[in-house]
## 1
Amino acid sequence: MFLLDTNVIAELRKAGDGKADAGVTAWLAGRDASSFYISAITLMEIEWGILLLARRDARQAARLRAWMDTRVVPEFAERTLPVDRAVALRCAGLHVPDPRIEGVNKSGASEQVAGTCPIKAQSAAIPRGISSICNDERARFGGMSGRGGFVHTLLERDAWIAATALVHGMAVVTRNVVDFAPTGVEVIDLWRHS
């Protein structure tokens, strides 16, 4: 069973126009659709995107709304996994990595992974206040490493998706391998897999 990340669902939207990555569509077409699930977080991310888009392009937002309501929601009606107690508890553990595992520093935080934040890991120690320039919630989960460098921190939405996959024994299908790497979840990158 596979948990499809939001970027995979977005790629499938392009398939009707013939613009989707051929490797992605071929991989998905070669498997039973009943083995594909999404997280409730994916629905939240799509809805969030539609609401943001509506502020600047109502027509495009309406097209995305129709796609979500007539394609995504019905297709995954019985295969949308909720954030429940087991997922919540597993997600909490993802924010407290085991320092005995390689790649986790002595302070218990995962080491910086390139590309996770616009702030460069090589820069001097980053004051806590300036970490807020990261444009998502990564900066709020992890803080500074004991050596003064910015550490890889897990995007909260990705943590929920990873926890869902871990609880249900699924692989996450995504393009964002780096974002899921610290979680230990099995990741399949269809853009490189094919």
Note: The radius of gyration is 18 Å.
## 2
Amino acid sequence: MYEKKVSGVFIAMACCLFSFAFVACDDDDNNGYNGNPLSVTAVRGEYAGATIKAGDADTTVTVSVNADSVKIADFPVDGIVAAVVPSADLSEALSSVGSVPFAAGYDGSVIGTNIVMPMVADSLQFTVTAAGQEHSVKVGFAADASGLYSGSDSTFTFTASAETVIFDGDTVKTFSPIEYVLSPAKKGVAGGDGEADVPSDGEGDVAGE
């Protein structure tokens, strides 16, 4: 009689454990986690059609991420120009600005199903023409720029704040910081520097590569 009771208890416990494991696996599937280890290389690639928000303005850009840097070939600077050029000369100034490249170094670390990426953004340097005169502009970013790659939905986002502006060698003291936020973006097939294209479903890199 005692043995039958003990056996019944063990059977009940086994059923409970099986049910818990089944539900947990189902939750993982619903969250997009496929059980493969996430590698820091997963973030590398090209994110075309991404959206950067700066205040009320949205700009479509292409973001490239390689082994140690995040790059945008044509970074949106309209808000910065508007902050340092008189409104009467703004149209001329905006039309005079060419493509302004953005680059930021990063150091990625895998934490759970995410890649956390502290970033150090390089200064932007470009020229504008206002009232017929060419002016130099240098923009510095705050030190707390950061990026995040989500392994659960394969998206990349980052934030960087333009903190200082030097106009013709003088610091613009009235400049208010502008925060740039990259909305979660999915990458295409081609890698940003030819390395680590998007793996096919089910392929997992070795963590920490």
Note: The mean pLDDT is 82.
